[in-house]
Design brief:
Blueprint lengths: L2 E6 L5 H12 L2 E4 H9 L3 H24 L5 E4 L8 H10 E7 L2 H8 L13 H16 L4 E4 L5 H14 L7 E2 L4
Parallel strand pairs: 1-3, 1-4, 2-3, 4-5
Antiparallel strand pairs: 5-6
Helix pairs in contact: 1-7, 2-3, 5-6
This protein binds shikimate-3-phosphate.
């Protein structure tokens, strides 16, 4: 099977859903941010602080490229991976893309006390999240299915993805390309 690639803003549940989806489907699980940490021996926060975002994005693309050489994986990507045309091209050519979303209020709740996400270490976190969501919307929309995780359990989101992959439509109230 091709890869299943999870995209979405920080806090949409990509890693939790990805792990469960991998265990339910028997596919391998790979988290791009964790692979970056493993490769560099530095936390994401440290890479941003010492080498800057541009360098982080370079490493991110190189890890995505090498990860996507393999099949049969569920891959959780970092929230900003979709910004790069190169990354999106790699996702398109090697996988089925699932974009996870959540309402801004929910993201706020999940992210406001987090100090590991360098792009959110700012004064007005709500404004920052809203602006980033807006700037990135067209990139997140480049997906085979989009699932709003607001108010849903990890188990339910996972089932929705499996349902779509098996039947071509989703079991929840979901926006997807088939129009189901
Ligand atoms: C980022 C999201 C983070 C991480 C980095 C940048 C972003 O990943 O890659 O802090 O640009 O949205 P998560 O979405 O897993 O938090």
């Amino acid at each position: 099977m091709a890869n299943i690639i999870l995209t979405g803003f920080m806090g949409t549940g990509k890693t939790s859903v990805g792990k469960r989806l991998a265990s339910k489907t028997g596919l391998a699980f790979c988290d791009i941010d964790s692979s970056i940490v493993e490769l560099t021996g530095k936390s994401i926060k440290e890479i941003f602080a010492t080498e800057g975002e541009a360098k982080f994005r370079e490493i991110e693309t190189s890890v995505i490229r090498s990860t996507l050489k393999n099949d049969n994986q569920v891959i959780s990507t970092g929230g900003g991976a979709v910004i790069s045309d190169v990354n999106r091209g790699l996702f398109r050519s090697t996988g089925f893309i699932v974009n996870l979303t959540a309402q801004t209020d929910v993201l706020m709740e999940r992210l406001q006390y987090d100090d590991e996400r360098p792009l959110l270490l700012c004064e007005n976190i709500r404004e920052t999240i809203s602006k980033m969501l807006c700037d990135r919307e067209s990139y997140y929309a480049d997906a085979d299915i989009r699932i709003d995780t607001t108010g849903k359990k990890i188990e339910d989101v996972t089932e929705e993805i499996i349902c779509f992959i098996e039947n071509g439509y989703t079991c929840g109230g979901i926006d997807c390309k088939s129009g189901a």
